Amino acid sequence: MKTITLLVLILAGLFATGYLQPDAAGNNHLKGVQTVQSDIISFNGTKIVQIGIVVRDVEKYTKSYADFFGVETPKIIISETEDKAKTHYFGQPTKARVKQAFFQFDNITIELLEPVGTPSTWKDFLDKNGEGVHHIAFEVKGMDERITEMQARGTSLIQEGRWTDYSGGRYAYFDSEAQLAVITELLENF
User: Fold this and answer.
1) What confidence score (pLDDT) does residue 35 get?
2) What contacts 181, CB < 8 A, 6 or more positions away?
3) Nearest Cα to 169, choosing from 136, 135, 149, 141?
4) In what order do the strands lie in the sheet with 183-188?
5) Cα separations (Å) of 144 from 66, 109, 121, 158, 164?
6) What is the rounded distance in angstroms from the CA atom of residue 98 to the CA atom of residue 118?
7) Among the CATH numbers 2.30.130.40, 1.10.3210.10, 3.10.180.10, 3.40.630.40, which is that of 2-188?
8) Is the peptide bond before 93 cis (omega within 30 degrees of 0)?
């Protein structure tokens, strides 16, 4: 698990240090990598906006992260109930919630997640793997189309929902562990 965490942080660092270069149209491309045309929607030009880390004690790790990075301790919030967040786990409503803390850096957000209740992707991950990197999140537009696209890539939709602090925010987690060694999250109106 520590290897995956290190790999994710290295990848995030590569993106942060300019390994992505914008073209004339403002789309980002990996330096020295050519894209291949296909019917599959490309992730080229899509921003990685978040790394999610599942923990057993969000209060403890929020303080630890703030001390380590020398930043203010963010507020810990708890997600809305299923009736408001429309949380679905493998297509079924779930009462599971999550305590969250967000560390906003210039180029990426680190999200700490502590599962509350079951079933959820967060609790499953914690039970199976222990604490560690749960997901990499991409900012997208057209969530419904992107869900269809992710499923066409051979990933199954694990969990989806909404956040209610403003209208239109949606998230969806996909089981991309076989392909990428990490869960993929899509965020709309992030």
Assistant:
1) 44
2) 4, 7
3) 141
4) 77-78, 97-104, 109-116, 48-54, 132-140, 183-188, 170-175, 156-162, 88-89, 92-93
5) 36, 24, 20, 15, 18
6) 10
7) 3.10.180.10
8) no
Q: What is the pLDDT of residues 138-171, one digit of tens each?
A: 999 989 999 999 999 999 999 999 987 656 699 9
Q: Give the C-alpha separation, 112 to 167, whole Å.
A: 23
Contact 189, 172 (CB under 8 A): no
Q: Which residues of the chain have pLDDT under 50?
A: 3, 6-7, 20, 33-38
Closest CA to 127 of 169, 96, 93: 96
CA nearest to 76, candidates 94, 93, 55, 48: 55
Q: Which amino acid is at 93?
A: P
